[in-house]
Amino acid sequence: MEYQLRPTGPGDDAWQLAIYASTRTEELALTGWPRAQCDAFVAQQHRAQQQHYWRHYPRSLCQLILVDGAVAGRLWVDSRADRLHVLDISLLPAFRDRGLGTRCLLNLAKEAAATDRPLGIQVEVHNPARRLYERLGFAADGEAQGLYQPMLRPVTAAPIEACLP
């Protein structure tokens, strides 16, 4: 699936919130909360995530993922001296399970390898996406930190093409 990346701007707040909210739908369905309470909670959590990323990763780049001009998701990457690090990759439901996330990660892996850096990401320990990351050459990078497992795709990992289905 072909895609383009576009840096986010102030006019993209609603898209970013919608993308974030779509990642919390299943979790919030378990709460039994009224819709208004779920919406308020998601908005608060989204603001907290954004503030955290901008405060701790001020040189990071947040981009919208576009497919045929339509917003499909968000990719937030921090380019560090020792690695290229994915802070967040999230897709809207209509764009999941179509290879788009894989394509984004493979392109990031190529970018990291071209600058002789590994590609890093953190994943929730029980997140099914962890299997995808492992298939793409990521491995656990140390012990889990609470709910999150740091993962790293080393520069010496198998060639990107070998990871494609």
UniProtKB/TrEMBL annotation:
Gene3D superfamilies according to UniProt: 3.40.630.30
Sequence ranges assigned to domain N-acetyltransferase in this UniProt record: 21-156
Stored InterPro entries: Acyl_CoA_acyltransferase, GNAT_dom
Annotated TM spans: none
Database matches in Pfam families: Acetyltransf_1
Name of the protein: GNAT family N-acetyltransferase
